[in-house]
Design brief:
Layout: H1 13-24, E1 34-43, E2 54-57, E3 60-63, E4 69-76, E5 80-84, E6 91-94, E7 100-105, E8 110-114, E9 126-129, E10 132-135, E11 141-144, E12 152-156, E13 163-166, E14 172-175, H2 181-193, H3 197-201, H4 214-226, E15 230-246, E16 257-272, E17 278-289, E18 295-297
Parallel strand pairs: 1-7, 8-14
Antiparallel strand pairs: 1-4, 2-3, 2-5, 5-6, 8-11, 9-10, 9-12, 12-13, 15-16, 16-17, 17-18
Length: about 300
């Protein structure tokens, strides 16, 4: 029997040389594998889809659809995926073998602080933009997500004027809504209950200084408190916006004078009584809005 020629089972010499070249140069001479890749881009906080995100693998780029989905073909296997979207931190991931993957983006927050224009302290408020709504805590702080600089938000707080405010490039928005007349009356009563006379007197209308001074009003309130009669609260029954005429003050050369931006407040004042208990006094008090947006009152003292 004829023996087989060992050389007949070998690859031709030129193929052997090529394989040696491949082995000695690692994978340089071998083409890398390509795969199709798909997935979704999601909000890491809410798990909602992120539309319009830019997905990049190597030199291939696509954009996520409304449902957050994306697809790429003919991209290198195990290549890093970079995902970017407005108002989100960019993310990098790797998907092997053409598998589908969900990629979560962390939203960059917008910090909102809402404070009273009367006290500078935080307010409970609702902040709205588009279909998103956030509520501030007792310090007036809230966070918004998925929005950024240039977007306008609406801020609503009970007793304060509504307003639209634009988010700055710093993503830190501080809002000082203007107190309405009812909120102003309640705040004055709260200051006087705590015997904080100066901030209360700071809201006297400047025209009233033609017949009384802040010092005289403060001294009168202090004296009444020492005698056991002090304002401890107020109930706002109704607010009417009118044009009001301040009648001539007999003790001073002032009036009559008309004020267009006037709020007539139907109030019940609650006082501590010298003999104990509470006394109630019903009155119509007029607050006039000044150019700084504050509602100011005219004391009775000095012109009663």
């Amino acid at each position: 029997m004829r023996k087989s020629d060992p050389s007949s089972t070998r690859a031709p010499r030129w193929i052997q040389g090529f394989c040696v070249l491949v082995l000695t140069t690692s994978l340089v001479a071998c083409p890398s594998s390509s795969v199709a890749m798909s997935g979704r881009v999601l909000d890491a906080r809410s798990q909602d889809p992120v539309a319009g995100a830019t997905v990049t693998v190597g030199t291939e780029t696509t954009t996520s659809a409304d449902d957050g989905s994306f697809a790429l073909t003919d991209v290198p296997d195990d290549a890093p995926i970079r995902v970017e979207a407005a108002n989100y931190e960019p993310a990098t991931s790797t998907v092997s073998g053409g598998a589908s993957a969900d990629i979560a983006l962390v939203p960059i927050p917008v910090q909102v602080t809402v404070v009273s224009n009367l006290t500078g302290k935080g307010l409970r408020a609702t902040i709205r933009t588009g279909d998103q709504e956030a509520r501030s805590d007792t310090k007036g702080r809230a966070s918004l997500y998925g929005v950024g600089p240039g977007v306008k938000v609406r801020v609503l707080s009970s007793g304060y004027e509504q307003g639209r405010h634009e988010i700055p490039t710093t993503r830190k928005l501080r809002v000082r809504p203007l107190a309405g007349p009812a909120a102003t009356a309640r705040q004055i009563a709260e200051w006087e209950r705590r015997q904080q006379w100066k901030p209360s007197a700071a809201l006297i209308h400047p025209d009233a200084f033609s017949y009384v001074t802040r010092a005289e009003v403060i001294a009168e309130n202090k004296q009444a408190a020492r005698e056991g009669s002090q304002l401890v609260g107020v109930a706002v029954r109704r607010v009417s916006y009118i044009t009001w005429t301040f009648q001539r003050c007999s003790q001073a050369d002032f009036g009559p004078k008309r004020y267009k931006n006037t709020a007539a407040l139907d109030l019940t004042y609650i006082y501590s009584a010298p003999a104990g208990g509470r006394e109630r006094l019903h009155a119509i008090t007029h607050y006039v809005r000044t150019p700084d947006g504050r509602w100011r009152y005219f004391p009775i003292l000095g012109c009663d």
